Batch of 2 targets.
Target 1
Amino acid sequence: MSQLVFDLVLRTGDVALVAVALSAAYSLVRFPNIATVYYATIGPFLTYVLARVGLAFWLAAALATVAVGVLAVVLNATVFDRLLRSGSAIAMIGSLAVGMLVTAVLLVTAGPDSMRFAFALSPPQDLLGARVTALQLWSMGLSSAALLGFALILFFTDIGRCMRATAANADLARATGIDAHGVIRVITFASGVLAALGGICLSLKGELNILMGPDLILPVFAAAILGGLGNPLGAILGAAVIALTEVIAASTNFGPLLGQAFLFLPVNYIGATSFAILVLALLFRPYGLFVNEVRRV
Amino acid sequence: MPEPVLSIRGLRKAFGAHVVLGGIDLDIAVGSIVGLLGPNGSGKSTLLDTVTGFVPKDAGRIELDGRAIESLDPGAISRRGLVRTFQLPRMPARMSVREVMLAAERSGSGLADALLGRRAPSALAVDGLLERLLLTPVAEQPASAISGGQKKLLSIAMALANRPRLLCLDEPTAGVHPNLRQEIMALLRDANAQGVTLVVVEHDMAFIRGLCPRCVVLDRGELIADCAPDDLADHPRVVEAYLGRAGARAARKAA
Amino acid sequence: MFDFILHVAIIAALNGLLALSLNLQLGYAGLANFGQIALFGAGAYGAALAFSWGFGPFAGLLLGLALVSLLALVFARLGRSLGADYWGIATLSIAEILRTVATNETWLTGGAQGIGGLPQLFGFDLPGTLALAAAALLATYLVLRGVTQSKFGLAVRLLREEPQLAASLGYDLAGLRRRVMLISGVPAGLCGFLYAHYVTFVGPDQLFASETFFIWAMVVIGGLANHSGAVLGAVALQILSASIPFAKDALGLTSEYVAAARLTLTGGGLLLFLLLRPQGLLPERIGSVRA
């Protein structure tokens, strides 16, 4: 049981950071920015390169996340802002095009093979009855700290209040003297940082390769939409719902339901459960599970 | 009173705690022209929006020709013959004025018509209508590129080309060049003579006097008057609504 | 070499069908379908399934068109309650789900190996197949042009531009979207059918989302809401894409560069045109509908 809970938390963490990044960006820049999942690919690659040239891992990771944050701000100002004038779907395909270019660059610089961070692999240890590796714990700690930090900024700082005010009503916020463009830059930067951290946490536990971004698109969108696009903290709960469904789908014996002794969902379908949740969510709760929540400033 | 084409009973709408329509009862007779008046924020536009299905209402019954329409979507209500224009009409950027005008008449617009190459003989003399409204010079321009007054004209012409039973016009002359107001009035009179019932939201009293034998006045979501336009000036609640209580007393003293 | 040119021409014509289909949805109706490749897949798997059950190509065509219509209706139904960006995500997800199903339901679809051995239609060789593909492209072009030059086409463009105005004139917006999806499903399904019989094989690797974006690039580069533009974009991108391996050999690059170049062609082409020439090579002609 504790193994199940641990898997659940770990899987939630995989998706949550990037989903929060996507949702936070959407709250101010109203289109689903697919490039977010590619920020999650660039982050670990940059970290890898910086660590290879001799920087300590934490320093490499910090520099990489900041660099991705800056990249997000630059892309917003030069590309997405202009495309959004032609509509959210056009901005969305534009963000996908940016992602393709990112993949192309990574393909010729880093190559198609998977890589790992050069940490000594420690054997899993027993923690409260679950088998856990040190890297998994590090990854969990890092993503929890990032989420907590973002939540604190959002709810307990002036800039956070400005962000929420602008998200709720940009015109009104501007009228009350909030620098909307500044707020957008800050949240875009934060979204790049969160996405890059999400990618780093993900690759800490396993590998990094150029398909990380594309593979994240649907689970991240599922989580962000379940949580309500534009509601960053909802995305964490959305990620938990996705993780829960995946864990249940993987470990439930569907046999008795269909009159057979054993019937487990084929492994390949477990990833597809998040697509299915996404479609169900879009059909029945397109604006999120928590849509009745009133935004407070 | 002749049989009503539109019958509204107990129509209510609130935005949050703010009651915009507080239970409206209104009948519109077949073939009539009714002016809908009221100060800004009295609920005129919301009344049009809820009756035509563009904004969901909170409660009430709405019947068109005796059939309930309150649960229909705007397209279906329009197909039943209740058409409206908008206060600030928005026009397509990538269609010409003439194309938009053509699209206003729905007959022959089915997919089957398109696939079979059927061209329904149009009852609509598009070019003549554009000529009459002085829109011929801009007929080939993108519809979004013409002036606000021209958009208004175009939207009225489109609504009429749609051949409604009942047409609700939201401020048809606001922003329109004074010379063209007479043309709009003539256009609406012609339509009425051919059997189109009209409801006109309007601030221009000269226009209302010239067009509408009957006026209803809304104030803070309530119907406060239902009379001929010439009687409005003597109606105490109307005067009060427009001038406020103090203004109304002053007006009475002066009279 | 001549065979290779014929092959490129056939693929360009087939891609032209997909581009015309997407152009009707995206260019004319403003429906940003991110799952276009699934419509193709419905046609392709219709052909392959009918073949694997022992039926002839005609049955395969009918099955493909039935599947594609069903999928088009599902897409249209989702569009009733969703904004444009949400609908894009929904169509993308459905296409990915269908690819997953095609990969895993081996008993039905042959799994990752797909279904092979389909016959060439009419036993055609390359020139014959090219004639067939070109005829399909020409027919689709003419039919779709007829559709968009009609009053139905005007209604569809009004739906794209000002849905509220369209509704106020009594147009059934959901019905219009449904009809657009159904009519544009036909050339996409036809393309899948022709492609399946041309390469004699259908598999889930043909259904990657990247294929959808390749078609998007054709339409955006060629010109949204311009049929000739969509065909031009399909031909131009196919020629560029087919010449990438030659450039690789000439420059002595590794195969990673081929994949990267194709990504750059699609992504870079999309971005360049969206930012600098959003109307595409051949812009929409405003005011061309006369009656």
Target 2
Amino acid sequence: MKGFGRYVIFLSSLVVRRETFKTYYNLTLEECVQIGLKSILLFMLVSTFMGAVTTLQTGANLVSPFVPRFIISNVVREMTILELAPTIMAVIYAGKVGSSMAGGLGTMRITEQIDALEVMGINSASYLVLPKIVASILMYPLLVIVAAVCALFGGYLVGVLTGLLTPTEYVYGIRYGFNPYFITFALIKTFVFAFLISTISSFKGYYTHGGALEVGIASTQAVTTSIIAILLADYFLAYLLI
Amino acid sequence: MIKINNISKSFGDKTVLTGITGEFEKGKTNLIIGSSGTGKSVLLKCIVGLIQPDTGHVFFDLRNFTEADKEMKSEIRREIGMLFQGGALFDSKNVEENVMFPLNILTRMSEADKMDRVNFCLKRVGLEGVNKKMPSEISGGMKKRVGIARAIVNNPNYLFCDEPNSGLDPQTSVVIDDLIMEITHEFDITTIVVTHDMNSVLGIGEKIMFLYKGSKLWEGSNNDITHSGVKELDDFVFTNKVMRSLKGT
């Protein structure tokens, strides 16, 4: 509870004594490049394979003359939109971006760079962390949309190349019984996960004390705590919104 | 002038500072000296507000910093320049961007004026032609100089230096010491240097405060430190043969 209290105080400290809009605008753009554009290849790679594997495994489990083939791509679509793209990608995002945030801030703390900002009269938490949160909330949903498209494309490639189903069947399955609300639900999840990962990782990094060993510990804690938070949030969001 | 009154600080059961009172004069290099673990850096951090003291007050030219509201604290901090032990340069910015950083954040100067000011400060600390180098590409001594340039770029009224010589060779240490002293006189600012380096003490210690186990034990200048008559200070000063031979003379 004490840790949660500190986390809430940390969040409230982000919005006081802010710098100019221009300062945040530039920093947020830099963060968008760092955490968004530089993650896109990894997201595309992972999601394409994820879609491909999901198609193969679903196909292997639906070998029945009573089940039409297009159901395979239908299952791939539901899994991708509801869980694989927003949630599994969040775990990868926590591992790549979250650990980087915690490590970067932790290093700044132990090398007195954060103290240097404070001495200059700058709210270091707001200056360093707020752009990361805003950039995450902007970029993570976009990354998830790209990931979802790549996953569906990966499934299409494998499904068609292995002869599991025809292109027409795959596309039909993707379109069959489509519920647009699931897209909205997936996007709500992405905003929540982006907020949780960026704030938890920043919190862990910002309050690092000690040396290089502690920076490593902070990075690890940032990833594990973020993943636990993602899974809990995933459950509650599904419970509340579906 | 900076005045501290009855500063005490404990971390849990460990008392680090006990009722420290003193004055640091304008236009002079004021030194806080003492062995490792005597609370020098904690006192410096209490003065600049990075650590909140348990008791006592810090006054920056009669402005009570300890009890000031956030606005006033922010205003006073913008008059402060600080050189950290490791330089504390921002890894992601090059030398020029590091020095320009306070101007970008704290002023509305034009780009050309900022550039002029940065080049002036870098030249003042003896660094030219390194504007585009990253902190990882320069030596420890150069990092300290960049740190000094960044500390003075916004024309501070108060300059704080935490162990400016740590990790430097004796020659570079003297260069940094001289630079700090020259800047203090040239810009007529209040400078406080935390150090345990005896060369610094004798070289630039215009006013010295000696801390021992968290308490102030002696105050004076580099001219009278060798005959203070305080045993703990003598033990600190005369640790090597050279210093002991000085005492003999």
